[in-house]
User: What shape does this take?
Amino acid sequence: MIDGAFIYEDDLSNILIATGDLFSPLAEFGRSDGAGVVLTPMCDLAQEKIEWVKMALAIPFKTYLSEVLIPEVLKSEKEFQGEIYKDPKAFGQSYLNNEEKRDNTKTLRLVKEMQRVLKNITPRRPAHYYLPGQHDPTQGFLVDFSLILSVPCEELKRLTPRLRLKSPWREQLLSRYVGYSSRVGTLDYSDESICKAIKGFYPELTEEQINKKMR
Assistant: This one.
């Protein structure tokens, strides 16, 4: 079984800065719980000629759960709608930290969405990449490729990484970022054109039947 203890380096002294290093905290990201994950390729870092290091924001997975996932998944529950509408982050934090508030039926709704994040196979958002906790499964981080900053290399040289990814996870992290940043945006195909395509294969179906199934 692969877990956080397996994917991180134990020795942080052999390379000064490496792709996949997680530094925390970093004031540049504007939040006390925020960390930065190095995205600059190893070939550039090895030359030690660069002045700036590209980093993505990483927030504690607990924070992601309370601020994003829990409010999004449970917002359809009528008994929670008032609280979530008023302050979704406060509701998420309360639900996560108060076992008496939780209900197994509702909590199980979170399991499917959580596994999509934790498995790193089909993330809920293309910009996200999950880093598990090294020794505690609740101490993981969620990397957000949509929040990128450049940090002075000299600043990072004075710090010790909190975590360092092994190969091939550091390459996977970089590959996911490149895939996300190189996406080409296009307009969505219309429901009308999709309906026509489906009807072309199954002419016995009516447009009303097809559109009803597409809703």
User: Anything to note?
Assistant: Strands lie at 22-23, 35-38, 52-60, 128-131, 141-152.
